[in-house]
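Q: Joint fold for the lines below.
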Amino acid sequence: MQLTLWTYEGPPHVGAMRVATAMTDVHYVLHAPQGDTYADLLFTMIERLPRRPPVTYTTFQARDLGGDTAELFKDAARQAMARFQPAAMLVGSSCTAELIQDDPGGLAQALQLTIPVVALELPSYQRKENWGASETFYQLCRHLVHKPAAEKPAKVRPTCNILGPSALGFRHRDDVKEITQLLNQLGVDVAVVAPLSASVADVQKLAEADFNVVLYPEIGLAAAQWLQRQFDQPYTKTVPLGSHATRDFIAEVCALTSLPQPAQDPANAHAHWYAKSVDSTYLTGKRVYIFGDATHVVAAARIASQEMGFEVVGMGTYSREFAREVRDCAKRYGVEALITDDYLEVETQINALQPELILGTQMERHIAKRQGIPCAVISAPVHVQDFPARYAPQMGFEGANVLFDTWVHPLMMGLEEHLIGMFREDFEFHAGAAPSHLGSTRPAAENVAPVVAAPVATAVSATAAASSATPAHPDTLTTDSVQKVAAPAQAASNQATWSPEAEKELGKIPFFVRGKARRNTERFAQDLGVATITVETLYDAKAHYSR
Amino acid sequence: MRAETSAQTSGCTDVVPLVERGQREVFCGLTGIIWLHRKIQDAFFLVVGSRTCAHLIQSAAGVMIFAEPRFGTAIIDERDLAGLADVHEELDRVVGQLLARRPDIRLLFLVGSCPSEVIKLDLSRAAERQNQIHHPAVRVLNYSGSGIETTFTQGEDACLAALVPSLPGLPASTDTAPALMVVGTLADVVEDQMRSLLERMGLQVSFFPPRNSQAMPVVGPNTRYLLAQPFLADTARALQSRGAQHLPAPFPLGVEGTTAWLQAAATEFGVTPEVFEQATAAPRQRAEKALAVQRQMLQGQRIFFFPDSQLEIPLARFVHRELGMDLVEVGTPYLHRQHMAAELALLPAGTRISEGQDVDLQLDRCIADAPDLVVCGLGLANPLEAQGITTKWAIELVFTPIQGYEQAADLAGLFSRPLKRRLKLAA
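A: Joint structure:
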């Protein structure tokens, strides 16, 4: 048993729903108790779909358990067939039906339906949503994909499929559009996008394309690997998230197709120049923490480090299936990856690291709000606001533009931050001032120590390195070594008490590094067994850490 | 009020509802945790279930989950199912972990789910055992909020029914005067209004559930109780078995419902008509005035209720009699005739009432009827809107303060807002 307050992923049958709902003529008959229909509203509310997900639930109740729940399932399947007339049917059990051990696959077979019926085995007590989506798509491919004709028809342009986009996917709609455009410009035609908007007939001809583009390995990789084994169809390994990765992706596609590589980026690739412009200098070395699904985390780390000039101080994922990739990636940035689906662990780590920016899911957004740290969302699970009406891809060059804006937005803009450093005693540029473009009323964070008064304060800091090296901030107490603060809990514990003079002196330190200064000094005092922190201790600590 | 309908006193008393079985697009009883935990401030609700249960609660709780919630899920995993782990020891560990994290918790509910019911996990024994371990700091109770046994608001019924046996009783020797209890979760603001109205009539009243587990109301043979919510069948039975007596009344929705509900208490406790009038006249007139504005918008509009919370029949009575809406179909997940008797009598004869659901057939009926407004869950609302049908999502009627005089116009506003919006966007 595991105590859970929040879960990053739903059960695997929700993953299957994401595949069924993505497609146009598949119906999912789910053996499930009354109440499991709650999952419908993820699609109708969060994604705002104007139609019901194509799912029929048996909604059995206690009084049915003594009787024939198997018959109930058969009735539901028969009625769904008659009413919706799908081109293929998925059948399976939710967690409770798994326990009562009716066999949806066998039962559906007995109905002798005239369409393909794919029985799903989704172990609810071991696996989760993304795995469920991946397995469902893989099983659909296994059951549906036709062997292509020995002689492929002559084509003017090479073709590919795009695999992985699904319902309830974070920006899947616009990523597909962006990458399709990109491929078209390179000279590649997109044959089938699946499962998003695909029909059964589309899936049947997947093997006819020259290669596959795997946009979301969490959902599409298993199917792509199977297609490669069965039909020698290669697939792309690079996910085009960020400018660098997009260029790598282009190179990979060109190598697969022997098409010429374009000499330069398209005219709409602004992110690179924006990051180089002087206003972005203040982004240098900003300490960023990254959490989400494996694909988005690995990509975000690369963008953060190489395209934004941030320092990655921590990263992790809830995707256990891709833990190795994330661990390997984390090593490149000299950090240890956190593999967990417990958001309290993520919160503890964020608390210990005190990053200046968090890139995460909606859970991290709330952790960030509580701790007063700027945050941008890079991965599912997301709430309704991250299924925007506007065009907002994450992938390709337009995606890189979107990412630049999205990540920089919660931070103080360069000039603004500079002003606050210069005029920090000014009544208009005080610790509690929020970034001017984000509104002025922010509740005080409860978890922050009293003197680190404003939530925004700790959040919006110049980099440790930058400030200690700049003569304009001679009293800045901060160092590079603060970034190595790792041991959780320890950093938060507070044994020594502050003398009033030291507290006052601390108040003179620019608010955006004050939190770090406080923690460093307290740690220093604790290590030395100092009971009362004086002004001396404060500067001793500064000297100690700025070695 | 419509004179012609109130003259037909029989109303829908003998109605034969359309009973349907099939796919039910409803929540399970676990969802009740979302408002129950806001009410009982030192209680924690630990669901023993699957990842689906945890996912449901977080989907329903939306953003609330982040304020250090007082609910969580002990997720059963394969080790528990395979018998590799002793489930009771596992539960000991999880509860220990939880209580160490939340020393402020005084009342813990172990909440059963479909998986825990199907594997026949004995949560009552588990609760007893936890009680011994954590006594006296924490009291541990259990109830089932599973989908196989409960629909949406029935989760509250199961929870309150589990609390009733432990309510303090009166010593047998005392022959104290009858006391009034209001049963069913009401928003604090509504509770305060009701208390003040009843006190103005000279009545002392207790509320169940209370805001704090340390302030449980006393129950005994001299307890007279009013149901504030229509979905409390088991709770009423449990109170009955403690000797308490039910005061039949319509539910306190709208001016008419609130007046009749208060009147039931007043009559029982011998409040004179003058005192009753004095206590209720001002808020009643205020509410009627506020309702008149809403009535202009809603009069003659045809409304269709999908089953959700068992509030549908009282709501239908309110929108028909006080707002002049026409009832196309009133669906309810469960029809408790006795508790609903006063309401049914007030509905126009011939109203189509349905119990249970076969969602596809009900959608067919709904679309064929082309009502002006459909009250339904969030799984159906946007798909219906996309077909050009205006909807009011039903959950809001459970989460919003809607009872009593002061909320009557707010309640009407919940129905008129979607229609107003449609007009505005069409213009």
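Q: Anything notable?
A: The mean pLDDT of chain A is 86. Chain A touches chain B through 55 residues (CB under 8 Å).
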